[in-house]
Specification:
This protein has 177 residues and is α+β, with helices and mostly antiparallel strands. It has helices at 4-15, 41-48, 104-111, 121-133, 140-146, 157-171, and strands at residues 20-26, 29-35, 67-70, 73-76, 89-91. Bound molecules: FE2/S2 (inorganic) cluster (FES) (2 copies).
């Protein structure tokens, strides 16, 4: 049908919502952004703030590769709209170390060899920090249950659990963050 595709494209462009100005607070810094209101937090972090440590695995909330902390809780950033998290304190893997000093869980992942390809690792670490901080690292089974939303295609689960146990011993629930 002549002219159909350009017409459809024009209609789609007309339907695009107006961009939104917002401020995201990430790793202690405020960022002013103008975004399509449909932008997920994950895309805002990766595509607009260039914080690419948080990974896009499924984009559907099923793999955990995109896990960040929001106000201290572990959340899957592919399921959050950036426009709805304005004013929240977001921590990504880039904000975990203190200068050259790795977070105890980052150090434990290296010590325990808790990754292979590394694609899931930042999400595992952010979820693991939340697991410790929220007091769910009392036993290997409790850690497995808590971390069940974070998949590892390389099957590094035993080492990940060991690393979280180590870090829990080093930090305790109150200092998990
Ligand atoms: S990318 Fe968010 S859960 Fe998979
Ligand atoms: S280390 Fe490869 S997916 Fe987890």
């Amino acid at each position: 049908m002549p002219g159909f595709i350009p017409e459809a494209a024009a209609q789609a462009a007309d339907a695009r919502p107006a961009p939104l100005d917002l401020v995201l607070r990430v790793n202690g810094t405020e960022h002013r952004l103008t975004l399509d209101p449909r932008t997920t937090l994950l895309d805002a972090l990766r595509e607009h703030l260039h914080l690419t440590g948080s990974k896009k695995g499924c984009g559907l909330g099923q793999c955990g590769a995109c896990t960040v902390r929001m106000d201290g809780k572990g959340v899957k950033s592919c399921l959050s709209l950036a426009a709805l998290v304005e004013g929240r304190e977001i921590t990504t893997i880039e904000g975990l170390a203190q200068g050259d000093q790795l977070h105890p869980l980052q150090a434990a992942f290296i010590e325990r060899d808790a990754f292979q390809c590394g694609y899931c690792t930042s999400g595992q670490i952010m979820a693991g920090v939340a697991c410790i901080a929220e007091g769910h690292a009392g036993s290997p089974q409790e850690i497995r249950d808590w971390m069940s939303g974070n998949l590892c295609r390389c099957g590094a689960y035993d080492h990940i659990v060991a690393a979280i146990q180590d870090a829990a011993g080093a930090t305790g629930p109150a200092r998990g963050g």
